[in-house]
Each structure stands twice: as C-alpha cells, then as structure tokens.
User: What shape does this take?
Amino acid sequence: MTRYILTRVLGAVLMLVVTSIVVFGIFFIVPRLAGQTTDQLAAQYVAKDPSPEEIAAIKQKLGLDQPVVIQYGRFVKGIVVGREFQFGPDTEYCPPPCFGYSFKTQRPVWPDLVDRLSVTFSLAIGASIIWLVAGVSIGVLSALRRGTFFDRFAMIIALAGVSLPIFFTGLLSLALFKPTGVNYVPFTDSPFEWAYNLLLPWITLAFLYAALYARLTRAGMLETMSQDFIRTARAKGLPERTVTTKHALRATLTPILTLFGLDIGLLLGGAVLTESTFSLPGIGRYAIDAIGNNDLPQVLGVTMLAAFFIVVANLIVDILYAVADPRVRLS
Amino acid sequence: MTPLLEVDDLRVHFPTDDGLVKSVDGLSFSLERGQTLGIVGESGSGKSVTSLAIMGLHNRRRARITGEIRLDGENLVSASADRVRGLRGKKMAMIFQDPLSAMHPYYTIGAQIVEAYRIHNPVSKAVARKHAVEMLRRVGIPRPEDRVDDYPHQFSGGMRQRAMIAMALSCDPELLIADEPTTALDVTVQAQILDLIRDLQRDFGTGVIIITHDLGVVAELADDILVMYAGRAAEYAPADDIFNRPEHPYTWGLLGSVPRLDREPTDRLLQIKGTPPSLINVPRGCPFHPRCPYAELNGGRSESVVPELVDTGGGHRVACHLPQETKHRIWAEEIAPRLEGGSNG
Assistant: This one.
C-alpha cells in the first residue's frame, strides 16, 4: 500500500513537471510557430508605436531574447525561490511561489489567484456536498423503485438537469429568486452572508451535477443489483436493507467517488460558466478576464493552477480507490 | 418422518412481453435428510430456476410460483417473504457456479462468513470470527487464521469455492443446494470440490441438491438423479438406474455426450440433435419429441399427448411414450454397446 501511494505521488509530481513544460511551451513556442516574432511579442508590453530601442530594451528585461529553455528555467526558479522583475526604473520582487508578474495590472499573479481561489473553493465545496447527497440518494431510490412514478419523474428532471446549460438555469434562477444579483461575502466576514449569497450558485451548479450523478448512480445500482454477489447476500438470509446498503451501494459508490474527485478538481480550476453567470470573482472569472485582456502571465498562471488541481485530484482519487477497492492495491 | 424437502407440482412462470415463459412446469421430487439429489439438464431446462424457487430468491413480483415446496413440512411457496428469508442461510443454503463473482469483491472472506453466521446466530464478532476460521479449516483451506483476512481475489478458484462452501455451511443448514459448483473450476480441482461436498455432507448430515449439466459430476455423488427437460422431469430414478438402466431417450443422449477415456478416440460422441425448445412455445405433446430419434415409434402420440411421469418399478420414474420392452431393447441393442469401453461402436 505504501509503495502504491509512493509511486502514485512520484507519478503525480512527474505529471506536474510535464504539464508545466507543455503549458509553458504552448504560451512561448506556439506564438513563434504561428509566425510571431520576438519583437512583436515584446511590443505588447510597451506603449503604442514603440521605437526599436524600446522593444529591444523590453525584450532584454523580460528575457524574451533568451532561449526558451532558459526562460522556462527562470519561470520554475520563480515558483521555487521567487524572482525579480525590472519594471521601468523600479525592480519588482515577486515572492515565491511566483507564477509570473502581470505587466498589465502591475501585480504578481499568485496573490490574485489565491484571493480568487477562496471564492471558487467556497462555490465548489457547497455545490459538491449538495449534488453528492442529492444525486446519489435520488439515483439509489430510482434504481430501487425502477419503473415507478418516482423513478420516471426523477429521471425526466435529471435529463433536464444534464441538458440545460448553467447560463440558462443560472440566469433563470437569478431572475426568479435574486434579481439584484449575488454579492460574494467572504466566509471569515460573515458565515451566514457567505452561505446566503452562495446558495443560489450552489443549487444551480449542483442541479447540473446532481442530475448527472443521479443517472450514474441509478445505472450503477441497477447493474450491481443484478450481480451474483447480491444473490449470494440474499441467499445468506440478509434483510433487503442490508443487501442494498452494505452490499449494493458499497460497490456502486466506488466509481462514483472517483468521478467526484475528478469533478472537484476540475471545478477548482475554475467554474467558468457559474462564476461568470453569478459574477463571482473566482478562478474561472479570472481566467476569462485574463484571456480577454490578452494578459499572458495571468493566463499562464491560471492554467498551471487548473492543471495542478486536476493532477492532485487524480492523485487523491487513485489513493482513495486503493482504499475503497482491495483489488486495486495489489495490481 | 417427513422428508427434508418435498417439491410438489412446482410451476415457475415468468410473464414477459413475448409471452409466458414456463421455466418450470409441474415438477415434483423429494429429498431425504443426508441424501443427495442430482438435477441434470441442458441450459434452460429449469434446473437453476427450480433451485432459486426453493431458496425463495425469485422476485415475487416477476415470477409466478405455484405448487408446493415443503421444507420440513413447511410450505415455502405460501410463506411470507420474511419467513423464507429467516430460513435462508440458516436451514437452507446455496453455493453458486462462479465463486469469484458470487463473493463481494470489497469484503474479506472472513467478513463475509462472519456476516452469514451472525445474521442467524446472536454472537459477538470475535466468536463469529473464530467460527469462520474453523469453517475455513474444515473445508481444507491451509493457514485459515491468516487467510480469513484475505479478499476473494487473493484466493484461487478452487479455494474460493471452498470458502463459498464454508460460508454456506456456517449455520449448519439441513439443505445445501449446489448450483453447478464445479463448472467454473479447473478439472483437477473439480474432483476435490466434489469430494469435499461429499465429506462435509457425511459430517453435517446435510441434504444436498447438486445441479449440473454434466452427468459425470453427479455419477459418484448422487443417490437419486432427476433429469429435467423443458421445465419438466424426463426421468427421475436412483442414480444406479440412470447410469445402468436409463429409459428416456434424452437421458441416453446425455450419457452418450459424456466423453470417456475408455472409449475409442475415433468413436463419435452420441449427440442430441437440435437445441432445447423455447420455453414460451413448448412443443405440443412430449416436449422432447422434435429431437427424439424414436418419436415416430409412437405413432403420433408424441406430438399430441404429454407423457406422464410413471413409476416403471423400484422408484424408477420416466416420462416417455415408448413401451417398456421397446425402451429396454433400444437401450440394450443400440445405446449401451456404444457407451461400453473399447467397442467398435
């Protein structure tokens, strides 16, 4: 088991390094492949109609004239020990972990990301609890009462849930319940206000995922209930309640938990649509703004962060899976 | 004294969109304590459906069960679901074909035996665990005190089936139903499992029903053999009679399809032509007549009249229109010589 966890952690670290190289490559090599010269890149960071001298100066300051390997090395060094950026006559220090410095906002990227992260985290936590509880219980009940009115009704609602996009359900719920919009209040300021304001985004986001989870749980539960080991459990004389919970649900939940971990990881990298619809200042919103402003360091930082969450979520899921399913531990 | 198990005119029908599936249609047999009954037949002959009906494992909403199944005189067909559940595992237990899929992959072998034991016996976990280790020892699992904490996938196929048997016998049931207990196992392991079942039966005094499509499996184990075809009994007789004086053409076919080492390798196995009938449209008359090579000897009766299961002497019951002397002649002149070892067929 320890060996299993160690190999997974090592794999995750390797994965992060590879991801960072790929992401960095996308932002620093692809523009060149697309025909943009270093000069053109550098020109973005100076005033309009720059002189060749100005361009050359900024090129040197930003290190754009260096080989891409050196640039990547500096980027990684920044994450580990921090790094200095020369900005006009001043030198800005970007403390570790330095995920770059936005010349447009004149701020390091990382503190902004951390700020935004609390919003996205709040959104993801609340929504995920709602959808996990609602989705799984509706799915189980539907499977146990297959073909009844409850089952059909729940599955129609679930179909609507997976089909309707967030910007539709979100705007609809805003218009219906909170026409004034949602104001994010940090948890530390007022837990009540925090929850009160987030309730609508939580439910909207949870509706989509709950629908998905209900359908998956129902399908998984139906499949499990037809397994041989369920017949064995009944043959032992177990009450039906024990058969469905201890035997069927236990086997159904394992793949659901896997999916749950991955979904959380994905959401932490930014619930773009939900955050945009409800004007929540989270990671997703940050990414949209960064792309809109063509702010390369910001885009790079937020991409790295999203990738980090996915990799970590995968790692946690792998480990949890080994805990939940004894067959995984040995292989 | 009442027999341990009496099945009387059992019918298990499943209404489906395509029609009524008559999986078991008027089956009767009985089993004494400590005896072994082999139920033999092809896929779809109703053997497994019968065993699940005895255990009360059919969904009562989907299966229509009529007739009587009396365990120790108590009719299980009319008993409440809860009453039957209380008997399951305690008074009657079952082992299944594929022990890997029949065990829960996420719980240890020990936990699954402990669970089976504690439903019916109010003891602490520690006591139940000791009992589980003891049961594993009795079914011949080496180092049971270590292996009790293993998961099913860590056991080999044969060991898993042993563990299944340990689980089934943990509450000392009076009736054990083994549904194709060796089909999923290696040939070398099959014999060991059958020996184990026989030894345990002797020790526990359990009544055993072995369900199989392979007559070879029940050859040494069964006291009586019930040959099923299309949900009915074709022949029901002491094992000795089935192997030495079989009277039903279907049984002949089953016997002829068992490969034997003492037969000439150039001999072709006897085969039963055709496939088992649909259980929605069972052939009129004798259900076996479309596949029976001797049906025309009955001059049309096979196509119109369902043969009754009649005792032809000494508890040998057979459902066949052929006259007694004709059956004996065909067996002695045509079938038996081909089954004898070393003949030139």
